[in-house]
Amino acid sequence: MADIRPLEIGRPEIRGDAMAKAAGRELFSADLYPADLVWAGAVRAGVPHGRLLSIDATAALAVPGVLKVLTAVDVPGPNRHGIIHKDMPVLADNVILYTGDAIALILAETREALKLAIPLVWAEIEPLPALFDPEAALAEGAPRLHPDKENNLLMAAEIRKGEASAAFTECDAVVEGEFATPVQAHIFLETENGTARLEEDGCIAMTVSTQSPFRDRFEIGYALGITFERIRIASPSLGGGFGGKDGATVQCLLALAALHSGGRPVRMQWDREENLASGYRRHGCKLKYRLGAKQDGTLHALECELVYDTGAYAHLGGEVMELGMEHAGGPYRIPHALIRGKCVFTNNPVAGAMRAFGVCQATFAFESMMDLLAKKLAMDPLDLRLANALIDGDTNCAGVRLVTSTGVVGCLEIVRDHPFWREREEWKQKAPLNTRRGVGLASVFNAAGYGGKVRDSAIAKVELSADGEIVVHNAVSDMGQGNSAAFLQMAGHILGQDASLMKLRQPDTVTAYPSGSSSAGRTTYTFGNALIKACEELKARLINRAGLLLFIDNDADLRLVPGKVIHPPTGREVPLKRLAGFMPHEDRVCISQFVAPVCADVPDTASGFFIGFPHVIFAYGAHLVRIEVDLLTGAIRVPDYLAATDGGRIVNPAMFDQQVHGAVAQGLGYALMEDLVTREGRVLSEDLSTYLIPGVLDVPDIVSIPYHGHEETGPFGMKGIGEVALNGPLPAVANAVADACGIRLCHAPLTPVRVLAALEGKSCN
Amino acid sequence: MRAVLKPACLEELFSLLERHPEALAMAGGTDLLVRLRSEPAADERPLLLLANVAELQGISDMGNEISIGAATTLTRLIADPLAGLHAPLLISAARTIGGPAVRNMATIGGNVSTASPAGDSLPPLYLLGAEIELASMQGKRRLPIGDFVAGPGRTQLHKREIITRILLPHAEDFPCRTFEKVGLRRSLAVAVTSFAGMIRLSGGIVEEARFAWGSVGPTVVRLPGLEAELVGARLDLGAVRKAAEIVRREVSPIDDIRATADYRRSVAANLLVRFLEGIHG
Amino acid sequence: MQLTFILNGNETQIDTREERRVVDLLREDLGLTGTKEGCGTGECGACTILVDGESRLSCLMVAAQLEGTRVTTVEGLEETRKGTLLRRAFAEEGAVQCGFCIPGMEMAAMALLRHDPEPTRERIRAGLSGNLCRCTGYVKIVDAVERAAEDLRCCREGR
What we know:
The complex is a heterotrimer.
Chain A: H1 18-22, E1 38-44, E2 50-56, H2 58-61, E3 66-70, E4 95-96, E5 102-108, H3 111-117, E6 122-127, H4 134-138, E7 153-161, H5 164-167, E8 173-181, E9 193-198, E10 204-208, H6 213-224, E11 231-234, H7 251-259, E12 266-269, H8 272-278, E13 284-293, E14 299-311, H9 317-326, E15 336-345, H10 359-376, H11 381-388, H12 408-416, H13 419-422, H14 424-429, E16 435-448, E17 457-464, E18 470-473, H15 483-495, E19 502-505, H16 523-549, E20 559-561, E21 564-567, E22 572-575, H17 576-581, E23 589-595, E24 606-607, E25 617-630, E26 636-646, H18 653-672, E27 678-679, E28 682-683, E29 703-707, H19 729-741, H20 752-759
Parallel strand pairs in A: 1-12, 10-11, 14-15, 18-19, 26-29
Antiparallel strand pairs in A: 1-5, 2-4, 2-6, 3-5, 7-15, 7-24, 8-13, 9-10, 9-12, 13-14, 16-25, 17-18, 17-23, 20-21, 21-22, 25-26, 27-28
Chain B: E1 4-5, H1 10-19, E2 24-26, H2 32-37, E3 47-49, E4 59-61, E5 65-69, H3 74-79, H4 81-86, H5 88-95, H6 100-105, H7 108-114, H8 122-127, E6 131-136, E7 139-144, H9 145-148, E8 149-151, E9 154-155, E10 162-169, E11 176-182, E12 193-202, E13 205-214, H10 224-230, H11 237-250, H12 261-277
Chain C: E1 2-7, E2 10-15, H1 22-29, E3 48-51, E4 54-57, E5 70-72, H2 81-92, H3 102-115, H4 121-127, H5 139-156
Helix pairs in contact in C: 2-3, 2-5
């Protein structure tokens, strides 16, 4: 008989969702096909900038199986949605700002009917001059895409610490660089989808693959003029999110469809082509950097400009830029910094949230600059990083004093002591014919949480069910990061229960409580902290009620063990199921809450931001990559990758490594092959044969080594590491290429085409 | 609505083609069904399944040549001992196509009839002197592969015809051979440049050389002038460099979403260099 | 058409359009949503099933192709000891994050281990080279297949 052991923090417990997913039994939103379904599909503008003059749906309506074709006139309410800025039409009513703007919504009996009808909706669109890059959008005389946004600026901001311009004169070495990062697509395998139904009571019930079920209600409600309480959303396990399902994708269209389908359930499923053409994506960015230091390697001055292309609508563009700017100086002490940023509208598809949110762009620049500086100073690149790495109590480049755990030094030391670093010269000597080997480093950091001026909070609910099971009511979508498994582990640990009695309900706005989005590396930290309190309360309550039931005069010796409460001194015990039978429902439910800490002493360095500045909790890391460059084809092979990560205390070591591996793999894609190509606003990377993500042959056996730290404010001492490791591969690979071949690549991704061109001396990208 | 026609034998296949000349022949479907995604949804051409037609499967030795059924899957081809003996270069290329499941479905005939400039089986087939047998109700005919492929995605296949077999001469003596495909990642990649090469030396002198490149022109590129020039030469540094220069001059790649013409040009030359440098005596 | 085939060991008959994509037939008509669709163009492998023991991509198959065949989907892994060991290996080795690629990975792994029961890590990678994952970085998936190969060997040897 299997030994029944309570779940325990710190053990690599098997994830609670793993078996169902391995069996193919876990139901994703995409797996739901309610009876009597109506299919909904969007007709998209196909034009990057224009004025919508008229729509003729006659031919589409004539297709057998087509029920309705909705346009802007059918949208109640303001017909505008967005997370912060309400600037996206649900269905375009006047100006079209990118090719993916939805102009009509078709409701049909079958997907085949949708496919036949979509091309038959004729739209008369008067083309307007379009802007495809920030330079053009910022130029004098450029057309204004949003009436209230002069110069097509969503946001212009500055972080000014000390006196950077003057400080350069005090530097012994100054290096400069210009960098460009690509548009990256999330490529979650489960594309955007959901189902919705208008219920008898007038509420819209939805199941959506979404990272923010609670906030979605407000986004939909505002757009369609419906009160948020009339919208119910359940978010089952997501087949990936990575930020691309943060903010309404199908939600407003689905709700609109539900209002028009006479009570029948409606389903919307984007295929991969629609996801690539019209889904959200990462901001492309151009960066200019100037970095100065003293002869001994002490960083002294930084001046940089970051320009983010946010595409047609705001989404979270300002916040992406804000975070990038907070990280623009790397995890280092720099007394003087002038960081400027511009987030610019263009007629490109919409850039939004993506893992490593604004930070990976800045990290490419900064970590490349560190190696350029090391070369100029004839200093070892690891020593240069160690000499400047932040420690607790330091002030970072944004002027924020670090009062939370700062483990970058520990991570760098792990890299320094690893054979990959120690034996790098011998390893490089053994490069095969026509290849060069290189070793590259990157220090990384990534804030968790929403930052300043935003409420970052969670409310956790845990209950003892009538069947004697512990049910955790998750409120933050699990998009694969395993927060739901972590919550079960935390609850099991506190309540002394093994996995068999622990159940989890994925977010449902009816039965769980608002806890913010699944994003920003915040879910385990914020919801976890709330959950701990709820579980402590439940534990106390169960012990108390058991004491009552067992007629014990002093609760001090009562213990929760798997399946029951026991009293060792007397041998009395009560199974949880029996205990539940004696407790009314409201007594078996515990709810508690947590608000994430904000900066107590906001520095006076920033101007132009709306929300976000500053962040106070950061994950840190240090990465090392070993590469082989094929001199004949420019192909970069990655035989080894080392990532040391500071996530505070580790709740589940297997899940910790899962996050690091996955983020490194996405970072390698960003480094080597991912580029969502658009030309004149049209996405050319149409499917997964042209938009390439790393396959199993492209990713090495990543070595993940934790730095064992402790974050006081975190649940069990942890902090979120969901994003940090994605930042490492691009600069580490660029630095390794420089090490291997003496060429400095500044334009990502570092494709064979770019590498070979640089090797042949044709251009520096 | 699209009908699916499932002939059980070649005769039935031809008569179906007579009645439905617009039918789309489908073996593995891995190219066809993907292409059909971007066709208008109203397209109603029937699919004509080839997988059950036994005459189109399998590999046999005809005595003077090797016959490969057009609907032979890549997996079957890769494992076949006759193919291993007579066409190892073709097997090397087939191994790089797609992933395991794709190779269980995709066929050699399909790869040839798609005639993509990046089709991986094509450079080896050109080098091996493959001929394509086409057949219809009216009879059979054979074309050398270089004549069969007319342009990017275009072949000499007439309506009502299908490819029935690919014929290869028995293996010739080419102890040095290579197939290399360069893609933008190591798994599941379309070739941005590919190269197949065969060389026979005697006493360090080239007796015969054959080279073919993919993805650097509208169809597979052969450079008979270069091949002729190398006959009788020693493969020293000068000869290799000169050969590379000729390749750079003669290939006509384009820019596309995957790679630039410049890149393809350089890599085409470099792959030849890698092959030639790797040959010892 | 009236389609008859063996599905996860059971004789199955269903009335369907002959050109219906097999992935849709499985998911929508037969309620077997374990097989997933990630791209529809044969690039991601999420739709991988076994047909007559060989891995195939169900997004690039039409219903008519299934007539008279023996089909195994991820749901069918429950029926066999091998399938159960494979699923357990995936769950316990930490190979599962979002889980959307996992059914396809498991089917590819089954096909691999059938032909190559003691694969090296390199050959495991080759066997999975037609399956994309966005969450895991593949490392623990390779670990899982390595462990499954070991477990299956012990199973064969009666341990």
